[in-house]
Amino acid sequence: MERLVTLLLLSVLLLSSAGESARVSKIRLPNSPADGLCAHLIQPYGYPCSEHTAQTNDGYLLGLQRVASNSRYLRRQYCPPVLLLHGLMMAGDAWFLNSPNQSLGFILADHGFDVWAGNVRGTRWSRRHVHLTEKDKDFWDWSWQELALYDLEGMARYIYNITNSKIFIVGHSQGTIMSLAAFTQPHIVSMVEAAALLSPISYLDHISSSFVLRLVKMHIDEVLCVMGIHELIFKSDCSTHMMDILCGEYVNCNELLTPVTGKNCCFNNSRIDFYLEYEPQPTSSKNLNHLFQMIREGTFRKYDYGIFKNLIRYGRFRPPAFDVSSIPNSLPLWIAYGGNDALADVTDVNRTLQELKRQPEVLFLEEYGHIDFLLSVRSKEDLYDNMIRFLKSFRKFGTY
Questions:
Q1: Is 228 exposed, middle or buried (0-12, 13-18, 19+ CB in 10 A)?
Q2: What integer pLDDT is reported at residue 244 of this predicted model?
Q3: Considering only CA atoms, which of 377, 363, 265, 103 is closest in space to residue 257?
Q4: What global pTM score does this model have?
Q5: What is the reported pLDDT for 269?
Q6: Which distant-in-sequence residues (6+ apart) come within 8 Å of 8 by Cβ?
């Protein structure tokens, strides 16, 4: 079964990406607030939401959604800003995919936080640039390195300037890679009050995902580059239809995810049709290549261009590392990870914990897989209540 699942997912990846390399992705860009994430997913539940755009230093225009409580009383209080950073092949909508009492974006708003959902470059809500278009090869010339140093910085600075306040950051998966790399940069960490990291990743050499390890062994990241595929897409009309049929009639969708993410204890299979309306999101082939470099080499460092290009870009043969131990001990961290997570492996997480100067608050959930930290039906009581207690300990909520 595991090999069949791997073959299925790999076929979807290659067919979708190869098909899209010959044409522009069929992703409808939000041209007005009526097309935005607020109107699609947040306002229908009665939460005030506004669309914003942050520009990065390298010219990308990133969508941000600002979400407030649906309580008039809470909206009159001082609300500390929190930036939500999604995982790989997801977008800001990932924080609102379950019901309001199970989705972190809504739960934070209900607790009086000023919620900002971030969307990294290339995703549905962030596909614009000041002079490039998504048709251009250069539009996709980035990895998580740029997401950390440009996207996170641009979104954080935009929120910081709007609110005149330090921000909280909450990241999941790729959002934690971005955060840990960005926190090594003094000009970024100076804008951050504290951070909560779900399924944190800075090292990947103990990853146990059988699907990912097969792709690494096949050097699929390098194959995609040779094929001239720059935008990486799992989603197409054909693949979505295929997943709908399989999940509805032939297999448990959790079984499809297990070779990728590890066994998820509390994933809601009944909502898979709804999840597939929004996920997976595009990323760049270079981003996948960078992640696979981490797996092969056991490092947390900048993108490896090869000896000669490294000399030009970095002034050295090998790319410089993001030194986790340089994250200042003045930054409070809260970290949650799971025993069934095949991507954020316990050994790798413990290595990160050992390298941090300041010991973070830690929550370990033995049953949780990678997706549970985002979509578990028990996430509020298992996870989010503890995290919110941590965040609230740094700010007093009060009237303006």
A1: exposed
A2: 57
A3: 265
A4: 0.91
A5: 78
A6: 242, 246, 256
Which residue has 């919620």 as its token pair? 115
Q: What is the pLDDT of residue 35?
A: 79
State yes or no: pLDDT of 296 exceeds 60. Answer: yes
Q: Residues, the chain, total?
A: 400
Instruction: Write the CA distances from 303 to 34, 290, 291, 352, 381, integer angstroms.
Output: 38, 6, 9, 19, 38
8 A C-beta contact, residue 211 and residue 259: yes
* Alpha carbon distance 260, 240 (integer Å): 17
* Residue burial 148-180, b: 16+ Cβ < 10 Å; e: rest: bbbbbbbbbbbbbeeeebbbbbbbbbbbbbbbb
pLDDT surpassing 80 at residue 377: yes
Coil vs helix vs strand at 365: strand
The letter for the amino acid at 333 is L
Contact 209, 343 (CB under 8 A): yes
Do the beta carbons of residue 231 and residue 285 sit within 8 Å?
yes
Positive or negative: CA dihedral 149, 154, 157, 163: negative
Residue 21 has pLDDT above 50, yes or no: no
Q: Tell me the three state secondary structure of residue 98.
A: coil
Segment 65-100, tens digit of pLDDT: 999 987 665 555 668 999 999 999 999 999 999 999
Q: Please say whether the beta carbons of 73 and 160 come within 8 A.
A: no
Cα–Cα distance, 200 to 33 (Å, whole number) = 33
Active centre residues (catalytic): 173, 341, 370
Name 55's bridge partners: 61
- pLDDT of res. 236: 55
Q: Is 47 left (phi over 0), alpha (psi -120 to 50) or beta?
A: beta
Helix (H), strand (E) at residue 291: helix 285-297
